[in-house]
Amino acid sequence: xxxxxxxxxxxxxxxxxxxxxxxxxxxxxxxxxxxxxxxxxxxxxxxxxxxxxxxxxxxxxxxxxxxxxxxxxxxxxxxxxxxxxxxxxxxxxxxxxxxxxxxxxxxxxxxxxxxxxxxxxxxxxxxxxxxxxxxxxxxxxxxxxxxxxxxxxxxxxxxxxxxxxxxxxxxxxxxxxxxxxxxxxxxxxxxxxxxxxxxxxxxxxxxxxxxxxxxxxxxxxxxxxxxxxxxxxxxxxxxxxxxxxxxxxxxxxxxxxxxxxxxxxxxxxxxxxxxxxxxxxxxxxxxxxxxxxxxxxxxxxxxxxxxxxxxxxxxxxxxxxxxxxxxxxxxxxxxxxxxxxxxxxxxxxxxxxxxxxxxxxxxxxxxxxxxxxxxxxxxxxxxxxxxxxxxxxxxxxxxxxxxxxxxxxxxxxxxxxxxxxxxxxxxxxxxxxxxxxxxxxxxxxxxxxxxxxxxxxxxxxxxxxxxxxxxxxxxxxxxxxxxxxxxxxxxxxxxxxxxxxxxxxxxxxxxxxxxxxxxxxxxx
Length: 524
Prior knowledge:
Layout: E1 26-27, H1 30-41, H2 53-56, H3 60-64, E2 67-68, E3 83-87, E4 98-103, E5 106-109, E6 117-118, H4 122-127, E7 136-141, E8 150-156, E9 160-163, E10 173-175, E11 178-179, E12 191-198, E13 207-214, E14 218-227, E15 232-242, E16 249-256, E17 258-260, E18 275-276, E19 280-284, E20 290-294, E21 302-307, E22 313-317, E23 338-343, E24 350-356, E25 367-373, E26 382-392, E27 404-411, E28 425-432, E29 444-449, E30 454-466, E31 471-481, E32 488-495, E33 504-509, H5 514-518
Parallel strand pairs: 4-12, 20-33
Antiparallel strand pairs: 1-5, 2-6, 3-7, 4-5, 7-8, 8-9, 9-10, 10-16, 11-16, 12-13, 13-14, 14-15, 15-26, 16-25, 17-18, 19-20, 19-22, 21-24, 22-23, 23-26, 24-25, 27-28, 28-31, 29-32, 30-31, 32-33
């Protein structure tokens, strides 16, 4: 079973009040959601009331024991391809939301029923308020076979949602919006307060979900058009209205976890080779350059910005999909999905931010990425963003040239050699896959570093038919001398005499991360 995943910052789920036991049909349109978001933005923000204390104080195991009965799923009796399972409030989900179904252009509220759930004890069941409401919902679809419904997308908690492709298990999350993520004391968590789930036609392969976002600084109307499959594809349209100008507005945010990897130090006592939901940030700028940034668990809070005008794509990727590099039969990190954002239209000038937060365990999401517009937000105006979001295997973000396979970093000495006198030198190993063609020109590595760091001993070593899988790659090896107290920024790629052969590898190590890596056990 997946371990509990906590938000890396306290997430106040300020959502709307639960619907009562009755409700009438009402005509529905997305323009009405937009109008409601626009009107909300003109009013002061009012947090909604929370659920009873005893539900907020449930233990993780107690909350997990509250289970929705699958036979109670919405549209189950019609044997629909898409069905909806509901989520009970409790523990982290502290405020109910409103959920509506839409059929033939009319919406109807989904009314809370205690009998739709099983509880760990009769005593707890009796204490559940009859009009409690829901925390979110799960969409199911026969991803594997025609007679079994599989959960493939979950909306629950603030503006968070998670999805998988057919071969995946749940891992990283997306969000509707990120506000002030790089400023932890001031971070805000706007929430989807209302959802409208449009009933698909019989045999449809897509489902539409509209949502109303509300938060201290922003409101919004969202449309999600979702198609599950080997890759689950979500078309997102967001129309935003601001009460206040945020310090940092994050568009198409993704949240994940990186504890340690094959090429990073392993915490004491850990036997698994790697533990992470994503191992890198991939991006494509407006000029078509693909950039790969390996993730780390930094010693201290770290924010990295990449200038990314008119982005063609970006996402958090689980590129290492081999079980032997995790050896975890329970959590199956080798099956975690990658998420890839493809902007629609021109997003203009901006930057991609990567937030990496220290973590002591795998139960905390400590990685966030999002795109930040280059223009200033003006309250009272409407802002529109549209993009496609893909969840699936790492191939959802496949560079056209060679890709980074692994990154290794350690003390700047050759294995088995005596200790170096220079204790401020690091050795980097970056393995690239390189497309093979008929004629093979000599390959060279191009490495740059921020001053006063100095790069030496750059070598490219071809490796063919390695191991039982007969892998082939080119290994780039180089040394970097880093003066004490300096952070390190590196870029590298492979080329021949005529062409760039690979994506650009990008690495950033904060000053406090460098000294531990230069230390070699047994050396004075």
